[in-house]
Amino acid sequence: MKPLLINNLDFAKNQDEISQEIDVKNCERMLDLLDVGQQSPKIIRYTLMGVASQFHLPSLALHVEATLPVLCQRCLQTMELDFSLDYTYVIAETEPESFEGDEEVDWLEMSREMNVDELVEDELLIAMPLGPLHEHACKPLVKEDVEKPNPFAVLRDFIK
Ligand SMILES: [Zn+2]
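That is the input. Now the predicted structure with zinc ion docked in place:
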């Protein structure tokens, strides 16, 4: 499968839109983190939209959907993680100062051959939890209503 390369500035200015699928088997960096095994092929779906002007700059909006198999770090059984991710990127030659530290907006360098599949894989790698656990069965029980011991009571016991 050929990677999708776009001129990201033109794409944004023309308000182009694409919806694509990536077979996870083609995402080498991600395969290390997954438990793909013999299961049916896993597909990442994404939609990329050009936005002519957002924050006064040409921008891209990316939506990624995927259900990926990972190994639960407690019971070592496969579990499926659902991802539904949204990103906004402004396209500029250098990082716009006003966006530094703004976590809502990312910045992408102008490129005539931006590899969209790679961008999608990058974002999924960042979104991937480090130690995935089954939601109920394997998460350590968190007692929410534990009262903190009163330091004076502890002291009192100590004096006794
Ligand atoms: Zn588990």
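The chain has a mean pLDDT of 86.
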